[in-house]
Amino acid sequence: MVTTENFGSFNGKDVFLYTLTNKGGDVIKLTSYGAAIVEINVPDRDGKRENVTFGYDSLSGYLNGDLYFGKVVGQYANRIAKGKFTLDGKEYTLAINNMPNSLHGGPTGWHSRVWDGEVLEGTDYPAVKFIYHKPDMEEGYPGNVVAEVVYTWTDANEIIIDYKVTTDRNTVVNITNHAYFNLHGAGNGDILDHELMINASAFTPVDPTLIPTGEIRPVEGTPFDFRTFHTIGERINEDYEQLVKGGGYDHNFVIDIPGEVIAEVYEPAGGRVLQVITDQPGVQLYTGNFLDSTQTGIGGKVYNYRSGFCLETQHFPDSPNQPSFPSVLLTPEEPLLTSTTYRFSVR
Ligand code: GAL
Predict the structure, then answer these.
(1) Which residues have C-beta within 8 Å of that of residue 299, sequence separation ≥ 6?
(2) Each residue of 158-184: pLDDT tens digit?
(3) Are 95 and 102 in contact (CB under 8 A)?
(4) 272 CA to centre of ligand 1 in angstroms
(5) Pocket lining for ligand 1, CB < 6 angstroms
(6) What pLDDT, in 10s, does the model give residues 278-300?
(7) Is residue 133 a contact partner of residue 36, using CB atoms and an 8 Å limit?
(8) Spans in the chain with pLDDT lower than 50
(9) Closest C-alpha among 111, 135, 103 to residue 31
(10) Among the options 139, 195, 312, 315, which is catalytic?
(11) CA 343, CA 225: separation in Å to the nearest integer?
């Protein structure tokens, strides 16, 4: 079941809040502002339901708050070095909003737009589709681009996110969802005790401005080896140059076998489990190193330093400038179709 309510308005457009309830009575909430996930209310092993993602009670929270909680990020998720790339022999210049680079599609990227929302009828599970029509050259990116995102909330407590992106001329796209998670419940302490597994044998080291150097480094023997479970906190403060540069984990992992469960997180006290499934080639592990207690979210909960983690499924950062990385070229001939699932359960 999906119910729709008004969530205010922005730039003359109404914004809506969608509440999706599955057969088990578990609830997620979405908003058309930024095509964002607002709440994910799932039980722990004792059946106690709690919201496990960062969000705000009101639209004003989103307008004044952190830019990316739960949002769809585009046209290019993560960083493009110095805000420049060349495509078909022409150089494009983007806004520098994360010195000295462009971050997450620029200050008025897709996360800051009101999308058109539509409750899908006749589907097996509650589902909402969001569409954003990006005009040619908005935020410096070529192409009239249409982004469609369908969220489906299954009876197995899976959020399936299906993305489709089309363009009328060649462009570059990297689309993701930027949800933060805390399996204790959002705002209930840090995530350092969460046990994490990522099926990735390599990661992409970064320079001091968090731009990949181009190296694909094996995780073997490093604090980035999550091929078996380690708590997020176990090695996060080690004096390993990449952890120092990132202020913790803030890195793209090279997924071994896209299409399968590529990551799993377990919170031992309450027993909640999050599995991530994606066909994308990379995933950004970000451990909330820039959170600083200035954000007050749902139910008055404050989001402190390292109190949330992100697993942003994606193409590698700065791919337009890195010929050895998988291509992010989008052409009019072939739409980008990609899917990511966040699956919640308990152990
Ligand atoms: C992440 C990125 C971080 C930071 C964060 C937003 O995707 O990797 O460096 O910018 O978004 O605060």
Answers:
(1) 51, 57, 187
(2) 999 999 999 999 999 999 999 999 999
(3) yes
(4) 25
(5) 68, 78, 103, 210, 250, 284, 286, 290, 312
(6) 999 999 999 999 999 999 999 99
(7) no
(8) none
(9) 111
(10) 312
(11) 23
